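Cross-check.
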Amino acid sequence: MNDTLWELVRRKKKMLFSILLVFFVFYFGLPFSLAFFHEEMNSPSSLMHITWGWLYAAVQIPLTWLLAGIYYYKMKQFDRRMKELRQGDAA
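Predicted model, tokenized:
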């Protein structure tokens, strides 16, 4: 029973890590790719004629808070689950 539980925790952790890895590669790789398209980033958008670079920077703030919230929520779940597993092993 415990082996299957540990396997399930390991698979979920591996899946979460792979999703976060793909996201972070995209998130941190995007500014480097946009550096080659600086004309488009400096052109005004249709939203109050703010440049795309400023809009991209403004979107990073709520995205960072969102990622931190997801991480906190998931780690709290993981800690709770690990505490249950440790209490089960002690009994």
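The two ends are 14 Å apart (CA to CA). The first helix runs from residue 2 to 35. Passed to J.P. for a second look.
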